[in-house]
Design goal:
Four copies of one chain form a homotetramer.
Chain A (H helix, E strand, L loop, with lengths): L8 E6 L15 H16 L4 H6 L2 E12 L8 E11 L3 E10 L5 E13 L9 H4 L5
Antiparallel strand pairs in A: 1-3, 2-5, 3-4, 4-5
């Protein structure tokens, strides 16, 4: 669960049939993409979309991914991805995530991702100003 | 089936569990990616990899895709993708494909893709010289 | 464009970063999955979700896919998938699709898909009653 | 690096263009699928394919995934996925992975995945006999 006072971005959508596998459930790699959707949504809701981030000449490379799978999701279910900042430094960012049933709130998956800011030459860089100013709350 | 005398590139691999869906079979969009693997393999076997194509400042944009699904593939099966040139002009290329069981030769999927050469500004361009020289055979 | 008087289901969403490729645009296979999302949305809007279809013991297998790519989509764009029935017979269905810019209406991709109804033994079957009753409009 | 005396399964393949993203590199979620390919290959090399596992009425559900990204992979590179058992108990399995450049041996990604055996009713079960007998080496 997100700590109190932290800014939490939520985005909800139906999972896709293409994301299921032969077990009849959503394939575990799909949640890594849902986390990314959570980050995209977080950045848009804070007014500094990731598309702008790249237009400023930076990329936010992924350095670590962790996911814990609590309960399986099936086709046609609507999920909510909750994303929040766990840490932001001058060059790195850590996001945390929670994926829940959009109707019942049941917990499906939790996780986090770590990132480092690179410039167009692939060198470690200071985050662009509009991201650097973010507080956790 | 490829016409006689045409150069046919073959590449074989196991399908992946992540490519299955809740029907227990390989999801139909996966074959579009297998076609792309077929093209990659074709270019490598003719000595002009698609990575080189892009390093010369071009991209080969897809303008059309068609696939006909004859028989379903299941997890753990090994498939062979056969790819050949159906047409090559100064600015466009058409590939045809056949995906078969790597053991029995049973036909799974057929299809084709059409492409146009673009330069780094997104303008329609003449194909790089090492591709332009390709004959169908 | 959909013919007049036909029932058209629309669904809109942001494309995902994971769906881009090294050309900087949405990979062409992603649209095949957007078509599927269009079908899912069509069935939900007509009150007979595809999840129910499978719960009745049937699957709707894909027999053919066609896509024509008019203009590339980039990360962060919002698209609208329009889906409609082109033909429905006792055992088969054909859907047509149009993917446009959700803001400007610019056309990105058109296509169609053909399907056949199978029962749990993989035999060709008559469509379940709630789908069979669909008219094009 | 795998501990000494442990059985390590290796599988090598070209990464796919569809797996790249707009950063020009392989998308981070693709490695989660490469890990799965590593597990598939591990099971085949030990003579008890995961397809057989499911045919015996079980599934191996993923409970946790972790990946650390050291260096990016680009289109056309050949990678080797090395997979080994880190722990096997009556109902759970932990795999570890290392993804390296197939030519130079350069390290790209490390990770692990945890799994639990479920029967066809979704209940936690003892692993099938041919897997239970596996030692780490």
């Amino acid at each position: 669960m997100p700590p109190p006072d932290v800014f939490v971005a939520e985005t909800s959508f139906h999972v896709r049939y293409a994301e299921t596998d032969a077990m009849g459930i959503i394939h575990h790699a799909s949640y890594i993409i849902y986390f990314e959707e959570g980050r995209s949504s977080y950045a848009r809701q804070r007014g500094a979309s990731y598309a702008d981030f790249e237009r400023q000449g930076f990329v936010l490379a992924v350095t670590e991914i962790h996911a814990r799978y609590v309960k399986a999701v099936r086709y046609d279910q609507r999920i909510t991805v909750r994303s929040w900042l766990a840490e932001i430094k001058s060059r790195t960012v850590t996001f945390e995530y929670e994926i829940v049933d959009a109707e019942t709130g049941d917990l499906f998956v939790t996780g986090h991702s770590k990132h480092i800011c690179l410039n167009s030459k692939g060198q470690i860089s200071i985050l662009p100003e509009n991201w650097r100013g973010w507080t956790l709350s």
